Amino acid sequence: MNSFEKITLYILSFLLYPIGIITWIISLFSNDLEKKKVGRICLYISLVSFVLFLILGIATFLMTATFNVDLNHSESIQYQINDVE
């Protein structure tokens, strides 16, 4: 497995964490130690990615729920329309 394939798998594992888990499962059945190592690293990257996305999702939810933030900014547009009339 060349370095380009490894880096591609690592990046895809971070961006789309199920790919890292699938890579790890596939590498379990391989006899090649290098593929097993790459699969294990993809699993670790996927777990870190999942935790980061989970933390960001919870933080976004808490910020919008706690501070009553409207992510669509529809209220501010409505105020601008009402002020013009």
Automatic annotation (TrEMBL):
Transmembrane intervals: 7-29, 41-63
Protein's name in the database: Group-specific protein
UniProt keywords, alphabetically: Membrane, Transmembrane, Transmembrane helix
Source organism of the structure: Bacillus cereus VD154
